[in-house]
Amino acid sequence: MKDDIARARLAGVPADIRNRLLAARAALPAGAISVVARFFAVLDERGELFDAPTRASFEAACGSESTLGLLLRVLERHAPEVGLAEGRALRQAHYRARPSGKGAAHQQDPAGQPQVRKERQGATSQLPQPRDWPDAWLALLPGLRAAPIADSSIARHIASINRCAEMLSDLSCPPRLGWLLAWELAEILQERGGKAAKARAGQGKEVTGIGPRSAAAYIGALVSLGLHGELEPAALKGLRAVRSQLQRKARRAPKRKTSRIEALYEKGGYAEILRVIAHEIERAAALPAWRSEAEIARAASAILAVAVNMPARTGDVAAWKIGEELLRDPCGDWRLRWRQGKTGHWQDAGTLWPEVGLVLDLHILGDRPGRQVQQRHDALQGLNWLTFSSDAYASKWPSEKVKAVVGIPLHDLRTLAADYLRLHDPAKAPDIVSSLLGHATRQAGEAYRALCSDTVAQREWMAVRAGASG
């Protein structure tokens, strides 16, 4: 294309952007001048500002996914002042429409994000399917599926039993549920960790098993299968005996998360969390708005900000919706209230701290102008707060993102909050923590309550010693 033709086509483009494009014309890909000119013509026709073009404008200017990709790349490089957030939303819609896109089963999206899942409606067909279960185990499955427990608990049990089934070929005993099977499974889980550990060993990586606490959870899934499937009492008693032994062993062993929390304390505790939030916000601002990395960075900062205010379980965090659990008032206040998946109880955080609200604003804006925040909130009503769609990420996704930027899983922030409260006021901490973390029963916080009692006793003894020495 000749210079005069290019200049004529770009006549409707703002001068600064036009001059940049003309200066780089020799390096521009074929079609770049035309699609940019068409895009700005659409904006002019629709009366839109280029810092906040709508999705409809991108659609009108780009007749195909490839053309949209070209426009986004050219604008990202040569017109960074143009808002590309709605262009990214349109590109995601193109991805989902592909047979191999992130809406397809067993696939990842082109950005490598975890597969999203449709919100379950309570149908058993949406529960995980058993893999390689012996016939005797399958015969008990209907009882587990019909058990009067939360669907999330049933799903977790089936997933754990799938893990146990993977290791049956390594056992010397037959796959008959009972004490011997549970004991051998527990040994293998703690020594090698199953198929995943074998894969790591094949890659020359160090192999370590899981701790007794996790092993007890796997055996506990078999206990639930036997209990609700009406397994014969003697066999069920054997499974429970192994689980109890693992639980006793776990209580004697230091928790792995203790060392993780201690490492976080060394970095500054909550000060480190706040530093990471700021870093992720800055990183997102430095990235092109239409890139998935920017979206994930903003999501990670939002998850952490809410966790500092009110630490929730990762499965609950993944499921929240805008306008339902998370609501923004026109005055700028964000409120949070949700039903816990584990306990079924309602948890009300009330109005979130203003600083948390600012992070949430940046998250939902996605690099759009600040003046659009309430409009954006209203447009996202009923959609998942992390995906901005009717789908939700897998329940572990929030925890994985937190671990990627902080080094600890999301659940550890619940422990961190409890620890801070214990050190601040050990006498009142147990009841406050029970409310903050949404414990369903007093028993759920008994270990922490005992730790608080020890802290109170230690402080009282130190006060007595100080008085005696004075």
Helices, strands, pairings?
Elements: H1 3-9, H2 15-23, H3 32-46, H4 55-61, H5 65-78, H6 85-97, E1 116-117, H7 135-138, H8 141-145, H9 151-166, H10 179-191, H11 195-202, H12 212-228, H13 233-252, H14 256-267, H15 270-286, H16 292-309, H17 314-319, E2 326-328, E3 334-339, E4 346-351, H18 354-365, H19 373-379, E5 392-393, H20 397-406, H21 411-424, H22 429-437, H23 446-469
Antiparallel strand pairs: 1-5, 2-3, 3-4
Region (Disordered): 95-131
Give structural notes.
The chain is mostly helical. About 60% of the residues lie in helices and about 5% in strands. It contains 23 helices and five strands. It has helices at about 5-10, 15-25, 30-45, 55-60, 65-80, 85-95, 135-140, 140-145, 150-165, 180-190, 195-200, 210-230, 235-250, 255-265, 270-285, 290-310, 315-320, 355-365, 375-380, 395-405, 410-425, 430-435, 445-470, and strands at about 115, 325-330, 335-340, 345-350, 390-395. The strands form two sheets. The chain has a three-stranded antiparallel beta sheet with strand order 2-3-4, covered by helices on one side. Strand 2 and strand 3 (about 335-340) form a beta hairpin. Helix 10 (about 180-190) packs antiparallel against helix 12 and helix 10 (about 180-190) packs parallel to helix 13 (about 235-250). The protein is elongated and about 90 Å long. The protein starts with a helix and ends with a helix. Residues about 100-125 have low confidence and may be disordered.
